[in-house]
Amino acid sequence: MTSALEKISLYNYDCILLDVGLPDGDGLKLLEKIKALGKEEGVIIISARNSLDDKVAGLNYGADDYLVKPFHLAELKARVAAVYRRKAFKGNNLLQYEDISINLQSMDVKINQNNLSLTKKEYDMLLYFIANKGKVIAKNAIAEHLWKDEIDLADNYDFIYTHIKNLRKKLADLTGKDFIKSIYGIGYKFS
């Protein structure tokens, strides 16, 4: 429980899957600490406890959803997507920003009805930029969002430049506009 709380306090996540039966503590106590930190991540409790009282307690502690074990991975994926959609895109499956149209379920990106082919990292980066449009985003925040805990292994963030350069070019080729502005010494701004 201590290492989970440490990671949650250091990093921002889109969604946290929380088992209430943690080997070294109570998941509901961890949820309480997450909420006390003021973290806004979506939380889905997964548990073998299926009584109504357990579900109500988990939701009252601040969880966004409660899923009883055993469950199908397709259901878990749909619930994670729903929590993310509610948090980042106000519940919409179709995201529209200027000429860019994104279907969050099929992961199709279109610009003026033309398909835009993106890698997984470029797609995730585009969603992250649109969710934070108008804000200056530091390079390390982009790296942490896209590579999660694996970013701890990186010596620098040079690899981000390549992904941003490729995404910027693909968007500009179809729109004639540079959506991604470099903010020298800080990061990037999507506008």
Characterization of this structure:
This protein is α+β, with helices and mostly antiparallel strands and 191 residues long. It has two domains: 2-68, 3-Layer(aba) Sandwich (Rossmann fold); 90-190, Winged helix-like DNA-binding domain superfamily/Winged helix DNA-binding domain (Arc Repressor Mutant, subunit A), CATH 1.10.10.10. The protein has helices at 2-10, 27-36, 52-60, 73-89, 120-131, 139-147, 158-175, and strands at residues 15-19, 21-22, 25-26, 42-47, 65-68, 94-97, 100-103, 108-111, 114-115, 136-138, 180-183, 187-190. Strands 6-7-8-9 form a four-stranded antiparallel beta sheet, covered by helices on one side. Helix 5 (120-131) packs across helix 7. The longest helix has 18 residues, at 158-175.
Distance between the termini: 39 Å
Radius of gyration: 19 Å
Report the count of strand segments. Answer: 12
Let me know the largest β-sheet: 4 strands, antiparallel
CATH architecture of the largest domain: Orthogonal Bundle
| Number of alpha- plus pi-helical segments | 7
CATH structural class of the largest domain: Mainly Alpha
CATH homologous superfamily identity of the largest domain: Winged helix-like DNA-binding domain superfamily/Winged helix DNA-binding domain
Show the helix and strand layout.
Elements: H1 2-10, E1 15-19, E2 21-22, E3 25-26, H2 27-36, E4 42-47, H3 52-60, E5 65-68, H4 73-89, E6 94-97, E7 100-103, E8 108-111, E9 114-115, H5 120-131, E10 136-138, H6 139-147, H7 158-175, E11 180-183, E12 187-190
Parallel strand pairs: 1-4, 4-5
Antiparallel strand pairs: 2-3, 6-7, 7-8, 8-9, 10-12, 11-12
Helix pairs in contact: 5-7
